[in-house]
Write a structure and sequence with these properties.
Strand content: 5-15%
Number of domains: 1
Largest sheet: 3 strands, parallel
Helix content: 40-55%
Number of helices: 15
CATH topology: TIM Barrel
CATH superfamily: Aldolase class I
Strand order of the largest sheet: 8-1-9
CATH architecture: Alpha-Beta Barrel
Number of strands: 9
Structural class: alpha/beta
Order of helices and strands: HHHEEHEHEHHHHEHEHEHHEHHE
CATH class: Alpha Beta
Radius of gyration: 20 Å
Oligomer: single chain
């Protein structure tokens, strides 16, 4: 979708070809993406991304009434950037029974509940039968809610444990009530960093393959990038381009979610984490590069409410949701609330000068 940028004044020469390409409807390449991620001309970059966002979404910014459920914090992967995971013998490790998980969801204060977001660690004892029963129990407790569950990493873990293909695993999960998949576990598509930070986790090729299989089964998914640790601007840019290429092929990604690294309580606690400038540059670059992604999320839990509001003018169009009790980011030191009310989300969007629009899991507008 082309944007008329003829009246814009670009301060950074590196952004001029970016503006010209966007104006003519051309795609950005690796060099363009790197220039966006490195620019000091944040306002010009933001204007370009905001024009693109408004061309797609107008004056609306969306949110969802959802509940985040982390069914286990026990994980065999032990990623260096994760403060959430526990070992199998950890005194504060847990695994909810399907019935316990369903009871928690049934007690959600959010009404009507549109979505249950379900993720956990790669627990050595979690089977496909457990995952199926978990979905079914939650669906019984909240039949009106869509279930967005299990990252590609969890699907890979369960399928290997069962000795079945990931495609078959996804098919059985869909039959049990899986409606969509979150985008976690992608981290950063860099083999250099995977070997250092998360060697036990699946690589980029496997992550993309599993999402492609989900798309073939008409299971829409999200995509993420964990940034602000040891990655370079080029690695961020390559990550975005790999996502765009996969979307060209399978067309099932609904949203991209930049996840700022939270260093506290991790083995990378000596790192400062990303700056606000890093976050806004990445959000804006994602909106410009991911021309085939419908939505870019400003995940208020990890960005902070104020920065998420600003991100709505740098290419983001969605604030995620009510969440109720987020754990993963808060274990790593996130200082935001664990959840927000519908009224608080609507106020954040209005304060940012946009019109709030409630949506469902499939990014369809709902409500009045």
């Amino acid at each position: 979708m082309a944007c008329d940028l003829s009246e814009e004044r670009i301060g950074d020469p590196g952004l001029i070809p970016v503006a010209e390409k966007i104006s003519s409807g051309e795609r950005l390449d690796l060099g363009d993406a790197i220039n966006c991620l490195k620019t000091r001309d944040l306002l010009s970059l933001g204007k370009l991304a905001d024009k693109k966002r408004r061309a797609i979404h107008g004056e609306k910014a969306t949110f969802i009434r959802n509940y985040h459920l982390n069914y286990t914090n026990i994980c065999k992967n032990g990623c260096m950037f994760c403060a959430f995971h526990r070992g199998l013998d950890s005194p504060d490790g847990y695994l909810m029974s399907p019935e316990e998980a369903a009871q928690r969801v049934s007690q959600s204060p959010i009404e009507p509940l549109r979505e249950v977001h379900i993720v956990g660690g790669c627990h050595p004892g979690v089977s496909l039968e457990y995952c199926v029963e978990l979905l079914r129990a939650i669906k019984r407790a909240r039949p009106e809610a869509h279930l967005k569950a299990f990252t590609a990493v969890e699907v890979d873990h369960v399928s290997r444990k069962e000795g079945i293909s990931t495609g078959e695993c996804l098919r059985r999960l869909k039959e049990a009530g899986l409606d969509a998949m979150p985008g976690g576990g992608a981290e950063v598509f860099s083999e250099r960093l995977r070997e250092v930070l998360f060697p036990a986790k699946i690589d980029a090729k496997r992550w993309l393959q599993i999402h492609a299989q989900a798309h073939e089964l008409q299971i829409p998914t999200n995509a993420t990038l964990l940034y602000g640790h040891l990655e370079t601007e080029e690695e961020r840019a390559l990550h975005l381009l790999k996502l765009r290429d996969q979307q060209d092929r399978s067309r099932g990604f609904q949203a991209f979610i930049p996840l700022p690294f939270q260093p506290r309580n991790t083995r990378l606690s000596h790192l400062p984490g990303p700056t606000a400038m890093d976050t806004l540059r990445l959000v804006a670059t994602a909106r410009l590069v991911l021309d085939n992604f419908p939505s870019i999320k400003a995940y208020w839990v990890m960005m902070g409410k104020g920065l998420a509001q600003v991100a709505l003018h740098f290419g983001a169009d969605d604030l995620e949701g009510t969440i109720v009790q987020e754990k993963i980011a808060h274990e790593a030191g996130a200082e935001t609330e664990s959840g927000l009310t519908v009224e608080e989300l609507e106020a954040l969007i209005r304060e940012a000068g946009l019109e709030p629009q409630e949506r469902d899991t499939f990014h369809r507008p709902v409500g009045p």
